[in-house]
Amino acid sequence: MLDSSALVAHTTRLELVIRHVLAGLGHGIHAGRERGAGVEFSEYRAYAPGDEWRRVDWKLMARADRYFVREAERDSHVAVWLVLDATASMLEPSRSIDGLTKLQYARVMLACVAAIAQRQGDAFGLVVCQGERAHFTPAARGPRQLQRVLAQLNRAEAAGTLPGADTLRASLHFTASPSAVFVAGDFLDWPSPLSEAILRLRRMRHDVRALCLQTEAEAGAGFDPALSYRDPEHDPESGQGSYRFGSDVRAAYARNRDAHFAQVVQDCRRNDVPVLCARIEQAPGEVLRTWLRKAVRA
How far, in Å, CA of 219 to CA of 212, rounded? Predict the structure, then answer.
């Protein structure tokens, strides 16, 4: 039987992967509460003009000779937004699990968040950053919306670089209402228009959570020194972006990598954005559980 990471690599059926990953995951995305005419009693308050008469507690009025309204609490429904980095670097494959890429893993993480949002009745939408464009799926609720979002995630192919700042700003117009924003990418381009958008959304008091994906080879500088590797976001005809990982460059790569991601984590922490750094070879359920808990790892 395939483990969950191998399952991600060997099927394009996101519904199947979602069921596998979410098995036993018993909590939702947010636990906010708001006062209103809900079903869970909270407290009484004095009647005010404009209150609905059906919410008046008539028995209490008979005892106190004053009108009181029953306040209740209900689950708050925020909009959930999924942001996928589908730039060319997300095609980076695992060196230990055949067929698994960072893009596939990110798709599954966001698909699971979408499924949870659908289960708890939230509206949810999708922004795919791909080839200098931002593909926007408006937020909506229900099973049909889940199918639309899964179809868009399946359709996403890694290509090009990130959209520019103006393009992203136009695509993230949902900022007028409270949102939970889940961003999945590799953040190799940082600072960038996407990082600026993440930090700007948080300053606007949205709940923003970032998932920074790497492969085990990237994290541990475990590349074959006999091979040459090309940065997919460089033009191959330019002669730039090709590297070998011999012993002479391995230590420098590790230092640069550590410094880069330390800056990513530092910027996120400074702006109160929980960021989880994970490897795509990790079990998706464990990563998802940690991400939903908003844990921060270096």
Answer: 11
Q: Where do the H-state alpha helices sit in 211-246? A: 216-220
Instruction: Tell me the C-alpha distance between 25 and 17, whole Å.
Output: 13
Please check whether residue 171 is in contact with residue 114, taking contact to mean a CB–CB distance below 8 angstroms.
Answer: no
Strand partners, 129: 85, 134
Per-residue pLDDT, 78: 75
Q: Mean of the per-residue pLDDT values for the chain?
A: 80
With beta carbons less than 8 A apart as the criterion, state whether 108 and 15 touch: no
CA distance 24 to 289: 10
> What residues have CB less than 8 Å from 127, skipping those under 6 apart?
81, 82, 83, 84, 134, 135, 136, 137, 171, 172
**What's the fold here for domain 4-25+77-233+243-292?**
Rossmann fold (3.40.50)
Strand partners for 208: 181
Bridge-based pairing state of the strands 242-244 and 228-230: antiparallel
Based on the number of CB atoms within 10 Å of its own CB, is 189 exposed (0-12), middle (13-18) or buried (19 or more)? middle
Query: Can you read off the two tokens belonging to residue 111?
Result: 């698909």
Report pTM. Answer: 0.77
pLDDT in tens, 228-243: 555 555 555 555 555 5
Q: Which residue intervals of the chain bear CATH 3.40.50.410?
A: 4-25+77-233+243-292
The first and second tokens of residue 118, run together, are 């659908």
- The edge-to-edge listing of strands for the beta sheet with 179-185 is 133-140, 124-130, 79-85, 179-185, 207-214, 275-279
Per residue in 90-114, pLDDT (tens digit) is 999 999 999 899 999 999 999 999 9
Question: Assign residue 59 a region: left if phi > 0, alpha if psi is -120 to 50, beta otherwise?
Answer: alpha
Task: Give the pairing of strands 242-244 and 275-279.
Answer: unpaired
